[in-house]
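Incident log, entry 3
Record: Shikimate kinase (107 residues)
Problem: checksum mismatch between cached and fresh output.
Input:
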Amino acid sequence: MGAGKTTVGPLVADRLGTAFADADARVEARVGTSVAELWAQHGEETFRAHEAAAVAELVAPGGPGVVAVGGGALGRPSTRALLDRRAHVVWLDADPDLLLARLEAAG
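Fresh output:
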């Protein structure tokens, strides 16, 4: 959270001439609530299950060329294996102080 996926992702997609999608946005569309609310009400495992389904949809043939997923998605073995088979994973790294500043600025 705060590493810049939703900023960098669309820029990369534009440069590559392809579409961009965000896995969290897909989860929110699937469940009709925010990721934060889903997590608070149903816990991490429920969120990760929805995230895994969203990632599977997004990396399927014909899906967008650039997909943003949170780092936690890689902690789920099935999601990691899917990404290993169907995607090139780029890890955005940011200094913890910068992440904190971004999160505080976002509210």
